[in-house]
Specification:
The chain is an alpha/beta fold and 407 residues long. It contains 14 helices and 14 strands.
């Protein structure tokens, strides 16, 4: 039983896995996906069956140290589709959720107003009429209760998607998320998997006040057993939603409240994004800029100015907040030798601090300049709009930081 717990525990224990190409290479594995899943940014699965996914719940997983992912060298680039349809980000989340509910009868939704109201941001609109009140369950305003209920449902074989009306409200369920959701696979000796998705809006909005502008990435990153991803486009929102639902691990999907109305053309065919893979947004040669969620667009805005000034920044949306895709990040650093991290999370103990530590530990010899990290100020987010803008990173600060690092 002890050995089972050591190999199957998601975050608590680790093991070195020699790969076929190198004896000292590390390979990350969470609870294993079905064999036809490929570790690339696009994974196609059109012939899934209920029995295949039931069997996959019994498979063990193996972990390694430092939350580092090694990417398959043969992985293909994201498939592009000549045809497609245009969706807003919240509609892409809904489409991914709808496809998974139709494919797998174990998938269910629970949360406040997710039923006939359609969710606070309409991600589950129309689901209650289509799937019924038992699979789309409206709950009381009691985050600790319905999150604990979702964990219990996952233990019995369901695949719940738990919506927090606002991510800040999930602090009320911190015990259920950390002590139960993250650790039960290990503490049960591998007898239970917890295939639950916890999702909802967060981040600094338009004058939503301190309690509704929380960024909980830093709260949950240190909890063993949890996997965290952040969507930033309609394309990856749908792909990450589908991948999170199919995962045997508990996944927290962070959605930014200001990105729901982003519009993008996405493929008509089915696709699933890799939960552990970063996205190369803009190739470059002078400096590596690492970012995620809403800050991706602040960085892209700053990049226009930087290009006009003669700089060639490489921009990476890390997407996977835990674990980091250090394969993609490391290859970029080996090329540019300079790193700027841009985040909306708090500076103290934030994602940027953990990412900077991982880069120093793994790629110190490739750095020609100190790593710079631009983060939100360590203050409650003010209600006043002008003050709110001062607390988060703005494009001119990014331009100034790049100029300083590239001197």
């Amino acid at each position: 039983m002890a050995n089972s717990a050591m190999t199957q525990g998601f975050g608590g224990f680790t093991a070195l896995m020699p790969s076929s190409s190198s004896s000292n290479r590390l390979q990350l594995g969470f609870s294993k996906h079905p064999p036809e899943w490929k570790r690339s940014s696009i994974m196609i699965r059109l012939d899934a069956s209920f029995s295949q996914y039931s069997n996959s719940m019994k498979r063990a997983s193996k972990l390694v140290t430092s939350a580092v992912m090694v990417k398959d060298e043969t992985a293909t680039s994201p498939a592009t589709s000549k045809t497609g349809h245009e969706l807003l980000l919240f509609e892409a989340l809904r489409e991914g959720l709808d496809e998974e509910m139709e494919r797998d009868p174990r998938v269910c939704i629970m949360g406040e107003d997710v039923g006939h109201y359609g969710g606070s941001y309409k991600v589950s609109k129309g689901m209650a009429e289509k799937y019924g009140d038992l699979r789309v369950l409206d709950t009381p305003i009691a985050e600790n209760s319905f999150t604990g209920m979702g964990v219990g449902a996952a233990m019995t074989g369901l695949r719940p998607v738990i919506e927090g009306m606002n991510m800040g409200f999930l602090l009320l369920a911190f015990n259920q998320i950390s002590n139960n959701c993250g650790m039960l696979h290990y503490t049960s000796g591998g007898q239970f998997t917890i295939p639950v998705v916890i999702r909802g809006p967060g981040g600094v909005g338009r004058q939503l006040g301190a309690e509704h502008s929380q960024r909980l990435e830093s709260y949950f990153q240190s909890v063993p057993g949890l996997q965290m991803v952040a969507c930033s486009t309609p394309y990856n929102a749908k792909g990450l939603m589908k991948a999170a639902i199919r995962s045997e691990n508990p996944v927290i999907l962070f959605e930014h409240v200001l990105l729901y109305n982003l519009k993008e053309n996405i493929p008509d065919e089915e696709y699933v994004c890799c939960l552990e893979e970063a996205e190369m947004v803009r190739p470059g040669a002078d400096i590596t800029i690492l970012t995620y969620s809403r800050m991706r667009y602040h960085v892209m805005q700053a990049a226009k100015t930087l290009v006009n000034k003669g700089y060639d920044p490489e921009i990476i949306d890390i997407r996977s907040l835990k674990p980091f895709d250090l394969h993609t990040i490391g290859n970029s650093i080996k090329k540019t030798h300079r790193v700027l991290i841009v985040e909306e999370c708090m500076r103290t103990g934030g994602i940027g601090a953990s990412l900077r530590a991982a880069i120093i530990e793994n790629f110190w010899d490739y750095l020609d300049a100190p790593i710079m990290c631009l983060s939100s100020q360590d203050v409650p987010t003010p209600y006043a709009g002008t003050l709110e803008d001062w607390t988060v990173v703005q494009p001119p600060q990014i331009v100034s930081a790049v100029e300083q690092l590239c001197q």
